[in-house]
Amino acid sequence: MSDRGKGGVQGIEPGTLTPIEQRRGMSRLFCFAVFNSLSFEIIGGQILILFARQVGASLMQIGLLVSFAPFASIIQLAVAPLVTRFGPKAVMFTGWTARTVAAAFLLGVPWVAGRHGPAGATLMLLGIMALFYLFRALGMSSWLPLLQEIVPPGLRGDFLGKQEILRHLSIIAASLLTAVYLLGVGDLGPFLHVIAVGVLCAAVGLAFLSGIPHVEPSGAAIDREFFRQAIRPLRDATFRHYLLFAWTLRFAMMSLPAFVVLFLRDAMHLGPSAVLFITTLSSAGAAASLIGWGPAIDRFGSKPVLLIGLAGMVAVALLWATIEPTAWMLRGVAPAAAFLHGVCNAGVFVALMGLELELIPREGREHYVAASVTLAGIAGGLSPLMVGALLHALEQTTWHLGPVALGAYRVYFLATALLLLPPLALRPSLKEKPRPNLRRALRVGLERGRRRAWARLRAPR
Fold first, then answer.
1. Domain count across the chain
2. What is the pTM of this model?
3. Please, which pLDDT band fits residue 220 given cuts at 50, 70 and 90?
4. Parent domain of 100
5. How many C-beta atoms surround the C-beta of residue 286 within 10 A?
6. Does residue 165 form part of some domain?
7. Maximum CA pair distance of the chain?
8. For residue 211, what are the contacts with CB-CB under 8 A and spacing of at least 6?
9. In a domain, 457, yes or no
10. Is 374 a residue whose pLDDT tops 90?
11. Which residues lie below 8 Å from residue 423, measured CB to CB, with a gap of 6+?
12. Half-sphere exposure (CA, 13 Å, Cβ side) for 343?
């Protein structure tokens, strides 16, 4: 007799996988996350931004490049039926295989640059990455359904926190090794070697993904009623409010990592290695803080973490706006801003994912995931596209507010701080399951500490 759906692990809901399969699935997901993070950091992260700039891409083209990932996720609406029909693992494996093959073609960009110049190489780079992100979006349509099946509800905050720690540690490793390798580099050759390592890591990640237990398709019929149900999430008032919150948050934050890289390279005149050393501190901050963010979400919920993270991101944007190309700022303030950026960004996005997993019901979840990722894609795509166009237009422009010079990047950072205020205002009205109050827990903790200190002072010597 099958034991699928039976208990055995605290917090496991009845589903299609046994507790043993869930445990095995979680360990494979961890390994997949490590190699996927290594490959994505090289192929689609800040290393790609530096590579594209080295190829000759303009700020507007960089904005377009960064917008591919979120815009590609809009295909979720069309892909949702495939997840229902074939199951989340099958769809994800197909998308990730195609993504890896597309990434391998990046190895030909330097050859095209030699024959057709920067314009031809940039065009090829943009075409390859458009396909890369489309295939990635196909796979990502299955990520949340796969998490719901494999990770028990009571362990999701801890799992997501640990997964993010592993992700950021792998990013740190990739960035530091690349920074050392690119010291003094002035051509595309060494970038080619780094990208080859990224493709290899993607292939290893595929091997771990293939070992994740198969999740049965939901079996829902793909007919007119299926597509009618696609608007069901928009009739859910609680989820609709969450979508508005997530949209404003992503619009404000999604462009920041890429344009910080360009700010350090172009405005602060740092080389690729120096840029990577500074921005790696962002991943170090994320990895260090995620040890606490995950358990905090499980105990107190996502809303308190969102408050702390969003308030911190406002401070981060203002801090980046103060940085000048002086030695003490580039050696002190810029690394501090990068570290704090990582701490706050990690808290915000782990809390956001935890809240979304809580709000999405099992029945019809493919429609909720599609609606969420599609709207997030629109916000995340518009953000870098508009920022790239703005910075391109203002690249040679500087205003003065008294003694303060307002260059293009300073205007951008100040605007980012303002754009973070709407999600801060929407946060209090988000709905989530009742949990212990964080303020009360802090008050109780402080009171206990005060009593213990007083008792020690009064104790006989």
1. 1
2. 0.76
3. low
4. 19-434
5. 27
6. yes
7. 86
8. 24, 28
9. no
10. no
11. 245, 248, 249, 252, 310
12. 16
